[in-house]
Amino acid sequence: MQRLRHLATSGKTIIASIHQPSSDVFELFNTLYLLSNGRTVYFGAVGRAREFFASNGFPCPPMCNPSDHYLRMINSDFQKDMDIDIEGVQTPPLTTEQIIDILADAYENSEVMSGVFNRVNKLSKKHGTGQEIHSDHANFFTQVSVLTVRSFKNMYRDLGYYWLRLAIYISLCLCVGTIYYKVGYSYGSIQARAAMLMFVAAFLTFMAIGGFPSFVEDMKVFDRERLNGHYGVASFVVANTLSSIPYLLLISAIPGAIAYFLADLHHGANHFLYFVLTLFSCMILVESLMMMVASIVPDFLMGIITGAGIQGVFMLNGGFFRLPNDLPKPVWKYPVSYMAFHTYANQGFYKNDFEGLYFESNIHGSPPISGDSVLRNDYQVTMSYSKWVDLAILVGMAVLYRLIFFWLIKLKERLRPIIRSELSKRAALKIMFLDPRAA
To answer: Going by fewer Cβ within 10 Å, which terminus of the chain is more open, N or C?
Structure first.
C-alpha cells in the first residue's frame, strides 16, 4: 500500500477496493467511496467521513478504527439493531437497512456531494466527458495484444506449463539419442530409424497432455472474464495461440536437436529444419486437441483420460504399429487413419530421413537398399506427394482444431442458458410433484 501511495503522490490516480483495512492503511487514502445495497453512502475526502457520520447520529467511538465503524454501520452482514443519538435525542433502534437509507439520503443533500459534483464539472469542462475520452470496449487488436502479453507471462511464471515439460523432453531426447546413437546405415538401422521417428512423433507429443491442468485453469479465468464482457472468444483463442508459439518452438527445437544429432539422422540443414517444424506442428496440434477437450471436460482427471484415449487411437492407426494397407478398411483405415495426425507426421518424418539414403542389404553381395524402396515396400508410405505436403496437412489440422475450439466455446455459450432453463423447469416440476400445494 505504501508503494501505491507513492505512485499516487507522483501524479497517478489509484483506485483500490479494500475490505476492513487497518487504521494505518486507511489513513493512506485521500478519498473514500462507500457503497451499500447499490446506493452511495459517502463519496468524498477521508477526513470528512468521520464528521459526516457523526452529524447524522453515527459517531465513531473513541479508540475505534474508522473503517471498522463505517463497515459495521452499512454492512448488512453485521445486521444489528442500534440506538442512535441525533442532537441529544434518543431514537428507537434502527436496522442496518434503515441506517443505510438515512446515510444515503443525508449524503445526497450534503455539502460533500455538492463539492464532488463541482469537481466533476470542472474536470469535464477541462478534459471532456468520459464518453469522449474512451470507448466502452477495447478493439479486437488491443484485446489480443493485452491477452497475449498476460498469457505469455503466466506461461513463463508457471513452471508446470512449459518449463517442466521442457526438462522432461530434454531428458527423453537424451535417452532416445543415446539409445539410437549414430544409428548408421546397416540393414538393422532401417527399423531403428523408423522406431525412433515414430517415438518422436507419437510419444514425445503425447506428453503435451501434461499441460491440461493449466488449460483448465485458463478456461476458468476465461469463463469468468467472458461473463463480465471483458473480451471476445476470438481474442482469447488468437491470444492463447500466439503466446504459446515461442514456448512450443523452444520445446521442439532444443530436445529435437539433441535427439536428431545424437542419432545422426539425415545430414543437411533443410532436413533438420523440417524435423523441427514437423515436431512443432505436432506439438501445437496436440495442444489444440487438449484445449478442445478442456472446453468440454473441465475435470482434470477425466480430461487427461479423454485426451490420452483420443491420441492412443490415433497412434494405433498412424502407420507404424499396423501398416496402412493392413488396417481394416471400415472405420480404422477410413476414416480414422486419415483423421490421425500421426499418419502425416510419420510419413513426413520417414520421407525426410529415408529419401536419398542407401542401406546395407541383409543378403550378402546384394546391392544397397534405397530409402525410397524402404518407404514404398516396407512402410507403405504414400509417395505421390512430397514431405512438405504432409507438413502442410499438419499445419492445416492445427488451424482446424483451433477453429473447432472456437466453435465449441461459442456453442457452449449458446447452450448454457438453455440447459440452465431446462434444469430450472425440472426442479420446479419436481417441487410441484412432491408438494402439490406449491402449484
So the answer is: C
- Nine-digit cell string for 379: 512402410
The type of residue at 251 is I
Distance CA 222, CA 215 (A): 10
Check residue 263 and give its pLDDT: 96
Residues composing the chain:
439
**Phi first, then psi: what are they for 36, rounded to 5°?**
-155, 135
Q: Buried b / exposed e across 271-280, counting CB within 10 Å, b at 16+? A: bbebbbbbbb
What's residue 137's pLDDT?
67
User: If pLDDT is split at 50, 70 and 90, which confidence band does 133 have?
Assistant: very low
Confidence of residue 434 (pLDDT cuts 50, 70, 90): low
- Are the CB atoms for 59 and 81 separated by under 8 Å? no
Give the dihedral sign, CA 147/148/149/153: positive
Average pLDDT over residues 83-108: 71
CA distances (Å), origin 94, targets 41, 54, 83, 105: 16, 16, 6, 15
Do 138 and 146 form a contact (C-beta atoms < 8 A)?
A: yes
Nearest CA-CA partner of 292 in 396, 218, 402, 204: 402
Q: What is the pLDDT of residue 57?
A: 85
- Give the whole-angstrom CA distance, residue 94 versus residue 102: 10
pTM for the model stands at 0.70
Q: H-helix or E-strand containing 34?
A: strand 31-36
**Structure confidence by residue, pLDDT tens digits, 85-95:** 544 545 566 78
Q: If you search the block for the grid coordinates 534405397, which residue do you land on?
A: 370
Is 254 exposed, middle or buried, given 0-12, 13-18 or 19+ CB atoms closer than 10 A? middle
Amino acid at 209: I
In 351-378, which positions are buried (b, 16+ CB within 10 angstroms) versus exposed (e)? Answer: bbbbbebebbeeeeeeeebebbebbeee
Other Cβ atoms less than 10 A from the Cβ of 162: the count is 21
Query: Which residue, among 195, 197, 396, 173, has the nearest Cα to 281 in the 3D structure?
Result: 396
Q: Assign 185 to helix, strand or coil.
A: coil
pLDDT class of 132 with cuts at 50, 70, 90: very low
Position with higher pLDDT, 336 vs 416: 336
Name the pLDDT band for 334 (thresholds 50, 70, 90). very high
Q: How far apart are CA 196 and CA 193, in angstroms?
A: 5
Amino acid, single-letter form, for residue 237: V
Q: Is 89 exposed, middle or buried (0-12, 13-18, 19+ CB in 10 A)?
A: exposed
| Over residues 195-214, mean pLDDT | 88
Q: Computed over its alpha carbons, how large is the radius of gyration of the chain?
A: 33
